[in-house]
Design a protein that fits this description.
- By secondary structure, this protein is of the alpha+beta class.
- It has a single domain (about 5-135), classed as 2-Layer Sandwich (Alpha-D-Glucose-1,6-Bisphosphate, Chain A, domain 4).
- It is built from three helices and seven strands, in the order βααββββββα.
- Strand 2 and strand 3 form a beta hairpin.
- The longest helix has 23 residues, at about 110-135.
Length: about 140
């Protein structure tokens, strides 16, 4: 059995704008990590961050699902753990409800889950800042 981390935010930006921030490599780099992402099913890519003694700074990934402006799924492999990240965008009267799920953690108390919780909360805060700077 595996555990899933779920984070949700209501953003005051339309789904099309949020989608751009989730799928355009330069924008992803502004809020998440350097990458060679292309929104095409089957595309293998990597997120790259500053390495440290416990981690090489690379997350290997593959695009699994692309439903423009509504759903994006990719694998997320790092430090021997393979998980799946799912982004779901739902239009609201004020903008977009964003749901991010990362599934495949061995437990919800261990270092992987705790690190992902910290990291994704930080990244989502940065995403909101990047959205402010994107033209409508």
């Amino acid at each position: 059995m595996t555990n899933t981390l779920t984070l949700e935010r209501d953003l005051r930006h339309p789904p099309e704008k949020v989608w751009r921030a989730l799928t355009q490599a330069p924008l992803i780099a502004d809020w998440l990590m350097q990458n060679d992402f292309v929104p095409e099913v089957g595309h293998k890519f990597a997120f790259r961050s500053q390495p440290n003694p416990q981690w090489d700074g690379i997350i290997n990934a593959e695009v699994k699902t692309v439903e423009p402006h509504s759903r994006l799924v990719y694998s997320w492999g790092s430090m021997g753990l393979e998980t799946v990240v799912t982004w779901t965008l739902t239009p609201t009267a004020a903008g977009t409800h964003v749901r991010m799920e990362q599934a495949g953690f061995p437990d919800d108390k261990g270092p992987y889950y705790q690190g992902a919780t910290y990291g994704w909360n930080m990244f989502l805060g940065k995403l909101e800042g990047v959205l402010e700077g994107i033209a409508a």
